[in-house]
Design a protein that fits this description.
By secondary structure, this protein is of the alpha/beta class. The protein contains twelve helices and 15 strands.
């Protein structure tokens, strides 16, 4: 019987894309229609279903690896964080499911956010799989506030014979051009569980007697292929509008690609739409939203954590000299037309998806998929030890 990797809450394919590069495939369970369409367009095997209702028995006796990234909206700082209020109920659900008692319906009735209990669903599957001494390994990922729950999982898994590690990892430490911090659980029946060695650091490290030091964090400019000058400028893809056509930009906000090239600030990258560029005479930063406390990063830094809620994408390139002005609007700083919203293709690249990745749905649907996905490059580092594989940074479109 073919052994498989089961991927719960599979999203648009962060784990799946990493696995495909490492030479294997997973079977993804996902409810969201547009994430499923993206997965299908990318060639990832998918079952569209409610993870909370799908039975575990079809996977028993055939599951080698187990992945889970439960929806983070109930826990994320970008939302109301009612998952923290519901946390005792989620812990109770995990304990009950680990003992073979399904109390989800009763507990769900008391939850402030019905999505909170989804973080307990992996235990339902793991309890069923454990009857067959499966899986061989487990990797789970969520926002940092879920770490206490992962620690509860760890206590239970150790009694089942797993070596387990839990902790917070920063995606930038593994070559992702984004300082995305996530709570991680790693477990194995066959090897000591430990986090992968970081490959990058905020500041590059010198070579020592023990080998080369870690490289400097990958910047947005490097990842997007914008740079050759000391102050690179963005090259932004058109496309991603609700009908699949060009995204509307304020009049006068773009300069021609030719002008950007003349200033030596753009180098070619294969994208699905023709690139254009804002004025090459400005220094640009990326603002995560229009709030006064928005995360702001220069192009020579990694992006902050990319997340997109129910609103339209507010993440925008803004001229650096205007950044101190807190009166910015979605249409530009202080009424200026210079602010340019990041595109879904750019956001995907900053998550280490390739530029060709076939995001499906409206512009807002695409951004939600990007924000919810596991960065494939980080996923590959977490998966490689279990697959006895080696991660090559340039397989993800980034320099080694």
């Amino acid at each position: 019987m073919t052994r498989l990797i089961l991927d719960l809450f599979a999203g648009p394919g962060g784990w799946s894309h990493a696995l495909s590069i490492l030479g294997v495939r997973d079977v993804g369970l996902e409810w969201d229609e547009w994430a499923c369409r993206t997965r299908t367009a990318a060639g990832h095997p998918t079952i569209r279903t409610d993870v909370a209702r799908y039975p575990a028995w079809p996977f028993t006796g055939r599951t080698a690896g187990f992945l889970a990234s439960p929806p983070c909206q109930a826990w994320s700082m970008a939302g109301k964080r009612l998952g923290l209020v519901d946390q005792p109920l989620v812990h109770q659900a995990v304990a009950d499911l680990a003992a073979g008692r399904d109390t989800r319906e009763r507990l769900l009735a008391s939850c402030k956010d019905e999505r909170s209990l989804l973080a307990a669903e992996p235990m339902r599957y793991l309890h069923a799989l454990n009857t067959m001494d499966e899986p061989e390994w487990i990797v789970m990922e969520e926002v940092p506030d879920v770490l206490p729950l992962w620690r509860q999982y760890a206590v239970i898994l150790r009694t089942w014979g797993f070596s387990v590690w839990t902790g917070i990892l920063n995606a930038a430490d593994y070559g992702v051009p984004q300082t995305r911090r996530r709570a991680i659980l790693l477990a194995s029946r066959t090897r000591p569980a430990r986090p992968p060695e970081p490959t990058h650091a905020r500041v590059a490290e010198p070579e020592t007697l023990f080998g080369p030091g870690r490289k400097r964090w990958v910047s947005m400019a490097e990842a997007l292929g914008w740079g050759a000058t000391d102050r690179p400028v963005p090259t932004v893809c058109a496309g991603g509008g609700p009908g699949g056509g060009p995204e509307p930009f304020p009049s006068g906000s773009r300069k021609t690609l030719t002008a950007s090239r003349e200033h030596g600030s753009w180098r070619h990258r294969t994208l699905s739409s023709a690139p254009t560029a804002p004025s090459p005479h400005r220094s640009w930063v990326l603002r995560s939203n229009n709030q006064a406390n928005a995360t702001v990063r220069r192009l020579d830094e990694p992006a902050g954590t990319l997340f997109y809620g129910h609103r339209v994408n507010e993440c925008a390139w803004v001229p650096e000299k205007a950044n101190a002005d807190q009166t910015q609007t979605p249409h530009g700083p202080s009424g200026s037309s210079e602010a340019i919203r990041i595109t879904a293709i750019e956001a995907g690249i900053l998550q280490t998806f390739p530029a060709w990745y076939p995001w499906q749905g409206t512009k807002s649907r695409q951004f939600q998929q990007v924000g919810n996905a596991v960065p494939p490059l980080m996923a590959a580092h977490l998966l490689a030890p279990h697959l006895e594989a080696r991660v090559r940074q340039d397989d993800f479109g980034l320099a080694a």
